[in-house]
Amino acid sequence: MTEKSFPSPYDQAPAAGAEGWKDLYAYNLVFQQNRREVEEGKFWFCDSQHWPTVTKPFETIGFEFAVSCLGQYNTRHLLIPPANGIEFRIHNGYVFMSPVGVPEAEIAARVPEFMARAGHYFQNWETLLEQWQGKIHGTIDELNALSFAALPDKVDINDVTSGKGTGPNNDLLARYDELIALTYRAWQYHFEFLNLGYVAYLDFFSFCTEVFPGIPDQAVAKMVQGVDMELFRPDDELKKLAKLAVELGLTGLFGDTENPEATLAGLAAASGGTEWIAAFTEAKDPWFNFTVGNGFYAHDKYWIDHLELPLGYIRDYIGRLQNGQIIDRPVAELVAERDRITEEYCELLSPEQLAAFEGKLGLARQVYPYVENHNFYIEHWTMGVFWRKARELSAMLQQQGFWADADGMFFLRRDEVREALFDYVTGWAVGAPAIGPSYWPEEVERRRGIVDALQQQRPQPALNTPPAVITEPFTLMLWGITSDQIKNWLGDSDAPEGEFRGMAASSGVAEGPARVISSSDQLSEVREGDILVAPVTAPSWGPIFGKIRATVTDIGGMMSHAAIVCREYGMPAVTGTGTASSQIVTGQWLRVDGNNGTVTIVEEHATEERAAEDHVHDLTLAGDAAMQLEQTLEPAGFEAIDGTVFEGSHA
Amino acid sequence: MTTTPYIQFFDGAEAPNHELLGGKCASLVALTQAGMPVPPGFAITTASYDAFIAAAGIEHDIHTLLADLDADDVVEVDRVSAQLRFEIESRPVPADVRADFVAAYHALQARFGEPVPVAVRSSATAEDLPDASFAGQQDTYLWLNGIEDVTEHIRRCWASLFTSRAITYRLKNNIPNEGLSMAVAVQKMVNARAAGVAITMDPTTGDRSKIVIEASYGLGELVVSGLVTPDNVTVDKIMLMVVKRVIGSKHAELVPDPANAGLVELEVSAARRAVLSISESEITAIATIAKKAEKHFRCPQDIEWALDRDLPDGANLLLLQSRPETVHSSGSTADAAPAAAVTGQFGIESITRSLLIQAGKA
Prior knowledge:
- The structure holds two protein chains of two kinds.
- Chain A is of the alpha+beta class.
- Chain A is built from 23 helices and twelve strands.
- In chain A, helix 4 (about 125-145) packs antiparallel against helix 6 (about 170-210) and helix 8 packs across helix 11 (about 310-320).
- In chain B, helix 4 (about 75-90) runs antiparallel to helix 7 (about 145-160).
- The longest helix of chain B has 18 residues, at about 280-295.
- The termini of chain B are far apart.
- Chains A and B meet through helix 3, helix 6, helix 7, helix 12 and helix 13 of A and helix 1, strand 9, helix 11, helix 12 and helix 13 of B.
- Chain B: It holds the Pfam family PPDK_N.
- Chain B: Catalyzes the phosphorylation of pyruvate to phosphoenolpyruvate.
């Protein structure tokens, strides 16, 4: 039997114009020529969920910190019996990962260690999590305190007279080191609870699949998932502000949200405006520390730095309120649906099974909020501050002539930034010009050319020969990389032409026109009633989820952001289709079946109105069915019609 | 008119009375009253049968013939059976019973623009007949046109109380012949595009979180009697999501034959065999209705359903029958659940175990 494989990274030429791209990255991040045999022996999958576009040299900090800290917790803190960390490489600018298993012989010895360590966390979850809150707030405060102003012409007289003994150059270097160290620290905190959250989820999941073989993944997710998460708070704040604007009669003042200063000034001056501005200011920090991307790119826009974004969303919400639409997430319905699902499964269990089910579900529900909420604290808030400070430093060095554009620094590796910074402080100290301004501008432009060239080519979904079965728990859960998914990528899918298969991540069926979005800058193109098709989505796209009918992504599993957000908004989603966003064209009519994980391009479709009705109907199908049942079965007069019927029901 | 002592329409106001209606009709009345889409029809009550037997004056003959019968004497049982069935099928129906039936038949026909064919099915009252869960198979007469044809088949249903199989069954189980009675269902025929059964549990594992649907083209009789291999679709009962599909060979279908005013078995083309006989939304609708029936009767159900090609999409699913699933659900809930050795405790031990299982290391 011939085994199908993905290409070897060693056989892939870079895109034209990207020759020499490897030199942009640290030696340990690329596939080294003399390690061919070792590297080809591993299966690598592309993590385009977190790194959908080419990472510039400075931006490798994101996956280096994130993925090494993930590994650190599996391997060194918790000693998760079957799983170590995940190796990562950069290839043609894209990030590839390969899970590291634990040798069979070492697994048993790790079990007691894991039980002691993880057990302690589960037993003391609330206390430790409260402590975590303190730690992460402290880290963010420290990051916020950093500043990267240009060095003064002369040392402050007070520093001289006080006998301080060191200059501002010393502080500048220290602050850069601190920027990196604080961020590394935050990423350690990121994984302090996350892996455990997944482990508890997995435990409940395994139990469910054991007692209810074939139970849909979505059922488990819906039972565990909370409905009132901090991750949804930014969007909820926008809705509150929209309602307040309606209440205070300020709706006419959002005409030019592209100019936030003028808009805010206009609001402040209006009658009732002070109250609104006070609410806006209170919501802004921390909740607008929210990226339209995912926290891993220097160019990510954060709401707090681009107030035109939240103001634009507020304007949209006001418009919908004025049209009589309901803008709130259907929280009560979500809770009712969650309770219904849980109750119906519970009814089928024996008393012993029920005790185990309730215990496991209880633990999963206790730990699960972290799985969603951490994202706000790290990817959004911490990384928002990090990138702001990094941009401040890049702009300062641009002022000093190190590069032509404000983003020049991101084409340097972080160790090269420190070199450049030392060059700068040396020039300052010596009183002669630094070397950087005559070296970096040309080099940055050369590198920019390479990055642009790499950007022209999409990555392979994976490299080398896949294993027969994917068992690594985190790969399955976080990335949704299943054996079926790999078959899909290899073109072994038996899906007919015009159909895409992925994970049934959020239930319901909807039809509508496709809107293919490959970057957050295109979000404004999304129209009411569209079906969003994207390589990957970000939680901060929340405000557009009120407009769309369904979501389709290329990558991501049951726990991907698109899946979580869609379940929260009660709309169908199919994730991990592999190639939908590159094959579907904006305007094509799609049918998205979130119950079965299929997306179909519908050649001839019904009228818009008809589809809209279908949508409303289908979205609420399961809930409706339950409701109807309650109603039709209310009169209890039919119980005793048949003795044989009753026999079974008393079992 | 809807109700007399002899007739009860499924959608009449009276609560289902098992004594009077037999299991099948009682269930159809209950389902109709619960708002389920049951094809319209009426029950010829056990009072009709009782009046018929009384008027025919054959009650004494019945007892005498059955009195000293040996269940193992197959030849004698067959002889008695044939004689009793002849007695029943050849006697006239009393005038008042007949009048009520004729009125009901016309009232049913009056609901439609043109004359519709009907199905006639027996509806036994208790353990008078072998294995209640075979009831659907034994006396079902399809696509009957015209009142005389219907009357004749009603008598045939009555006579079926005395098939050799029924007689032997009662003898072996010491079920007395006193008080034997039989109701009959007369129901508008469904012009089924696809039909089949659904069980509100997975009969192979006993997993009650599943609904297993069997579906094939045409009328459901070929599925019920096992003459075709139907499509087999497993649905999660709580989420109403499909978890497994197996396409069956379903080589034949039973469809109306306008030329002969009856039914004809046709071969199914290769292209139609290769795909599921029901759509995704039809699967959801069938599962929903099966779940509804289970909730109504408060125990796992085995339903028969059909998609009527004369009705519009979304309103074309009909429920023909719902009865307790008798094979698996007789035990307790706990026994019915999969026998997997699930650890009762939760906490770090079971979490560790789950991790190892997930990774294939335990």
